[in-house]
Amino acid sequence: MNPLRAKWQNGECTIGAWLSIPSPVTAEIIGRAGFDHATVDVQHGMVDYADALAMFQAIELGSSVPLARVTWNEPGIIGRMLDLGAGGVIIPMVNNPADAEAAVASCRYAPVGRRSVGPTRVRIGKPDYFEGVDDWVLCIPMIETVEAVANIDDILAVGGIDAVYVGPSDLAVSMGVGGPGLHNDHPDFSEALAKVVDSCRRHGVVPGIHTNVDLVERRVDEGFRLMTVIIDVPTLQMAVAAQLAEARARISV
Q1: 177: DSSP letter
Q2: Contact in structure between 192 and 175 (CB atoms under 8 Å)
Q3: One of 37, 44, 183, 210 is an active-site residue; which one?
């Protein structure tokens, strides 16, 4: 069983990191750090297919489950990421039940779905992959628009969804309550988050969200159980800036 699924079934929250830099070295650092999951961002990150392969291999040197945020709700790219070894896919812009059905179909083999059979790389480490695939693969649609929030109950009524993942930047922009960011104090934004979490509880789906360390306690209190708390690029930027500022302060006269 996918370790994330096992933790959710035990009522636990899972904490992850986000990888946009196309480097197996940074992926290995994250994989070995102890995060529950490490997501390779193929959509907005600087990552191509070959990069994703090397990064999955590096993540697996540690204890994190490799996930992929794919470019779009498209069966070809979803299947390729799963065949490479992703333990689940985060799928952008799932706005209605038809989108949700397409996402599930791309993650599941027949007769449930339409994923093509050919898990070439993932089967190297998991020779019984096909027999246990539905316990391993997580289908995680993104909820990031006004339309998706309005349709959340119908989306989650689609069988085969394991979790959803709120994209707060796109959601705030879609709602017209602000620009990109991990949090918005507008009451409509908070109401939208609550609506997603409530629907997840009623449908037995894990609510997830993109967040950070400063917000994580609040998100847990709100009911979220799948969370990303760092992104490699801004984390590196902040660490470098802080070290440089400290060094300059120490030698200033």
Answers
A1: S
A2: yes
A3: 44
State the virtual CA torsion across 68, 72, 73, 79 in degrees, nearest 10: -50
- Whether omega before 111 lies within 30 degrees of 0, making that bond cis, reads yes
CA distance 176 to 180: 11
Tokens of 184: 């918005």
Let me know if 37 is a catalytic residue.
no
Residue range 138-186, pLDDT digits in tens: 999 999 999 999 999 999 999 999 999 999 999 999 999 988 889 988 9
Contact 34, 63 (CB under 8 A): yes
Question: Do residues 113 and 105 touch, judged by C-beta distance below 8 A?
Answer: yes
Residues of the chain with pLDDT under 50: none
Distances (CA, A) of 215 to 38, 145, 211: 19, 21, 6
What totals of helices (H) and strands (E) does the chain contain, helices first?
13, 8
pTM of the model: 0.96
Cα–Cα dist 228/239, whole Å: 18
Q: Nearest-CA neighbor of 41 among 62, 55, 28, 29?
A: 55
